[in-house]
Design a protein that fits this description.
alpha/beta; FAD/NAD(P)-binding domain; Polyamine Oxidase, Chain A, domain 2
Length: 471
């Protein structure tokens, strides 16, 4: 008789929670350890002390194509907290040209995305046809054939005009990859086109959380882990791993406590991983090349208005300036209205003051929403996620490791692990679940026999339901 295999999961973001839920539900004795006093990693919300409003660290969108993330939300009973578009609809506004909408008409599934591109009025007829043929050609390219190619090179190779790049491709690529097209890897971008835009009507839809981000999944995930007998420890930072002759033996926390484990899943960002790995692992493949992987920032600006300013949808692409997307954040606690912008790959604001950033965002937004110039702005809050995701260049994509490591009972998870997708919630959940699938058998192989105690009940005294049926 063996004890349930003990698996320690480090990191309480989407990847760690998805791994821990799967492991706990499949019978492992799971301990999830999170450094911060709360779960949620880079997708979290908090109460703004000035207004009492609960604010997301940055607006997050999911897509119908996020099959693993949606399945995870279903597994923990959180699906109803998402609001899906009935069909793909993305509006973009240009100060000179007005509003253009990439919207799927009610046609049979496979025809929706092509029809949406052909009706995009911010481009002329020739560019729209090229948009469609370019998207089809790019989606058809294998990851291998694009491994050294940037998004800008791939778009040039499929004949996209400067207008098509500025008014469609670049906003889409920067939002999905969090990197500028001249640097971003084309392979995961082509994967997004295949999986989201050319995979049928349901995949192409966007979904937004109806509740603040942390409420979307952290409480339900923790409950699922605990109901299955697992433990969640927040405010507990892992300092390093204790290695033995056969692999990892325990997590060593900063306060010196050890968490013994038969297998470990590290679901932390790259920089945190490199900090906690013992040097003899850190300096060997596949970890050593990770030291050269950079990160890319996302800047969000939350704005409190004294009254409603809308644009007929939950989000809007801003063209012509540097601010990128605007989200409707709903009614504020004081009865006014909240909007929030999100701008990816925003290194240009690294040294700017918060006031300057907020003023630029408001000016870019007012250039397409004149009503914004007529309302009173009560408060702005700038959130800079300097290391929002890895900088997904072709070189970085080439060194993203698999969930398995050279240590037989050590596994990796996180949006940056090689999933052939951009560093998103979907990538995080895929990697977390894949790590769980590998960690469970590895832990089971190492799980120690339960020491025999003379006072323990003999197996035949156990309730019959726990015994295999007799032949
Ligand atoms: C502003 C912003 C907007 C975004 N928008 C979108 C979007 O619209 N759609 C989308 O799909 N994705 C979006 N993303 C990306 C998405 O948030 C991430 O891909 C996802 O949250 C990553 O989850 P993860 O579990 O891999 O990592 P994380 O969420 O970073 O979780 C890792 C956890 O490990 C913990 N940790 C680190 N070191 C230790 C240690 N030593 N001991 C214990 N714990 C430790 C951290 O505290 C953290 O909680 C956005 C990200 C940002 C920042």
């Amino acid at each position: 008789m063996t004890a349930p295999p003990r698996v320690a999961v480090v990191g309480g973001g989407f990847a760690g929670l998805a791994a821990a839920v799967r492991l706990a539900r499949r019978g492992a004795a799971v301990t999830l350890v999170e450094r911060r006093p709360f779960l949620g990693g880079r997708a979290y919300s908090f109460t703004d002390p000035a207004t009492g409003d609960v604010v997301d660290n940055g607006p997050h969108a999911l897509m119908g194509a996020y099959t693993a993330a949606l399945d995870f939300l279903g597994e923990i009973g959180a699906t109803a907290k998402l609001a899906f578009q009935p069909r793909l609809r993305v509006a973009l506004a240009d100060p000179g040209l007005g509003l253009g909408v990439v919207a799927a008409p009610p046609l049979p599934g496979p025809l929706q995305a092509p029809a949406a591109l052909l009706r995009y009025r911010l481009l002329g007829p020739r560019d729209r046809v090229r948009l469609l043929t370019g998207a089809v050609r790019l989606a058809a390219r294998s990851s291998g054939s694009l491994s050294r190619t940037t998004v800008a090179e791939a778009l040039a190779a499929v004949g996209q005009s400067p207008a098509a790049c500025a008014r469609f491709w670049h906003p889409l690529a920067i939002a999905t990859l969090n990197e500028l097209p001249g640097a971003a890897a084309a392979a995961p971008f082509a994967a997004v086109l295949r999986k989201a835009f050319f995979a049928g009507a349901r995949a192409a839809r966007f979904a937004l959380s109806r509740v603040p981000l942390s409420e979307l999944y952290t409480v339900d995930a923790q409950r699922a882990i605990e109901r299955a007998g697992g433990t969640v420890r927040t405010g507990a930072a892992v300092a390093t791993l204790a290695l033995g002759p056969e692999g990892v033996e325990a997590l060593v926390l900063r306060d010196g406590t050890r968490v013994a484990a038969d297998a470990v899943v590290l679901a932390v960002p790259v920089a945190a991983l490199l900090r906690l790995l013992p040097s003899r692992l850190r300096d060997a493949p596949p970890f050593r090349p990770l030291a050269s992987v950079g990160t890319s920032p996302i800047v969000s600006v939350h704005v409190w208005l004294d009254r409603h300013v809308g644009w007929g949808g939950p989000f809007l692409g801003l063209l012509g300036g540097r601010a990128q997307w605007l989200f409707d954040a709903g009614v504020a606690a004081d009865g006014g209205h909240r909007i929030a912008s999100v701008t990816s790959g925003a290194r240009f604001w690294d040294d700017a003051a918060d006031d300057e950033i907020a003023a630029e965002v408001l000016a870019d937004a007012a250039a397409v929403l004149p009503a914004l110039g007529r309302v009173r702005v009560r408060r702005t809050l700038v959130i800079r996620e300097r290391h929002a995701t890895l900088s997904l260049t072709p070189a970085a994509d080439a060194v993203r490791p698999d969930v398995e490591t050279p240590v037989a009972n050590l596994f990796l998870a996180g949006d940056w692990v090689q999933t052939h997708l951009p560093a998103t919630i979907e990538s995080a959940v895929i990697s977390g679940r894949a790590a769980a699938d590998r960690a469970l058998p590895a832990a089971t192989r190492r799980a120690r026999p339960v020491p025999w105690r003379p006072d323990a009940p003999a197996p035949s005294a156990l309730p019959s339901a726990t015994l295999p049926p007799s032949p």
